[in-house]
Write a structure and sequence with these properties.
- By secondary structure, this protein is α/β, with parallel strands linked by helices.
- It has ten helices and 18 strands.
- The strands form two sheets. Strands 1, 2, 3, 4, 5, 6, 7, 8, 9, 10, 11 and 12 form a twelve-stranded mixed β-sheet that branches. Strands 13-18-14-17-15-16 form a six-stranded parallel β-sheet, sandwiched between helices.
- It is globular.
């Protein structure tokens, strides 16, 4: 298969190209497209064969549900059952935007799209190209991130090309994404229960609660398995509620370890560990911030931005993880980024990329 790349700017949308991309989806093909979060790999959400193709192209486990992208709030009625007033309040507040809501699904949504579940995840992206494309594609586009399953999500079209060239029909290239982390996911599928955050993202718990009141958080968020403590080894594992939370994601090829502690302890520990590994012939990388990156004595140091610039850290994280792959790094150490607003979302992605391997110093 030859993958066609179409360049398109948000402020200068070529609707002839949009029509071509929409026709690919209607014919059962796959198109990677930009959103404000990451690039998505789109197929017809109501066509079970299209969803099966998405799983195949990504090498994604078939019990890992796909998010359906819509272009109008009123389109929610066709695919979601028991839509509460809370859901409409959140939609009015945060759509279009990086919020995914989970509902009981209607029969029209095939279980190939929902990973076998009776629920459906839905969002409306805040990206002009994405909205135009979704409308032309029929209004319901299933789209996980457009990467090989388990690898860092794509924030540039070239990341998509690296993973998907020859596997999908088309890529719409609209430059770098704005946010760089996937949407917040909130479960609204159990009427009478408080909404529950299943995946943290750019839309925080505080922001949600300002609109609808009390919000719960899945207990697996912030309780990270396989924590390696220098004094206390091991921890109890929690079973994630959603299948999409079961698998290692966002991971570079190299082994990744997160180091928690005071700034001085972290720098000292990483430099000592890196020196020992370098003597063994390993190439070492470090993910650091503007304040510390000059202090690491390793082969490759990547600066993700100032520690108080959460947006910069989020936007650069996946690209940095991919750069380590390009540089054939053997082992990566990362500082912790527990920043005030979206730090939980950043750490959620980084910890899953590390396979939940953390050391406290």
């Amino acid at each position: 298969m030859k993958t066609i790349a179409l360049k398109m700017d948000q402020e200068n949308i070529d609707y002839n190209k949009i029509m071509i991309a929409g026709a690919v989806i209607k014919a059962g093909g796959l198109v990677a497209f930009p959103t404000e979060t990451v690039y998505g790999l789109g197929g017809d959400a109501l066509n079970p064969t299209s969803s099966t193709k998405i799983y195949s192209a990504k090498g994604r486990p078939s019990d890992n549900p796909l998010i359906i992208h819509i272009a109008k709030i009123e389109d929610l009625d066709k695919i979601a059952d028991e839509i509460s007033e809370v859901a409409y309040q959140l939609a009015r507040a945060f759509w279009p935007g990086p919020l995914t809501m989970v509902f009981r699904k209607k029969a029209i949504v095939p279980k190939e799209t929902t990973g076998g579940l009776d629920t459906v995840a839905v969002r409306m992206p805040n990206h002009k190209v994405a909205i135009a494309f979704i409308k032309e594609a029929g209004g319901y586009v299933a789209a996980p991130s457009a990467n090989v399953s388990g690898k860092p999500s794509p924030t540039l079209a070239r990341h998509v090309i690296a993973d998907m060239d020859g596997k999908i029909d088309m890529i719409i290239d609209s430059g770098a994404v704005e946010i760089g982390l996937e949407s917040t996911i909130i479960d609204l599928s159990e009427p009478g229960k408080a909404p529950m955050i299943l995946r943290p993202g750019y839309i925080t718990k505080k922001m949600l609660e300002e609109v609808v009141g009390e919000i719960d958080t899945d207990p697996t968020i912030g309780n990270y398995e396989n924590v390696i403590d220098l004094e206390h080894q091991g921890s109890e594992k929690l079973i994630p509620k959603a299948p999409g939370m079961k698998y290692k994601h966002y991971a570079p090829r190299a082994e990744l370890m997160i180091v928690k502690g005071t700034q001085e302890n972290v720098i000292t520990y990483i430099n000592a560990q890196a020196e020992a590994k370098c003597r063994g012939g390993k190439k070492i990388g470090v993910i650091a911030t503007e304040e510390t990156f000059m202090r690491y004595l390793v082969d490759v140091v990547k600066n993700v931005g100032a520690r108080d610039d959460e947006e910069a850290i989020a936007k650069h994280l996946y690209a940095v993880l991919r750069e380590f792959d390009d540089l054939d790094v053997d082992f990566i150490y990362s500082e912790e980024f527990e920043t005030p607003r979206i730090g939980q979302a950043i750490m959620n992605r980084l910890i899953r990329a590390a396979g939940h391997q953390i050391v406290r110093v």
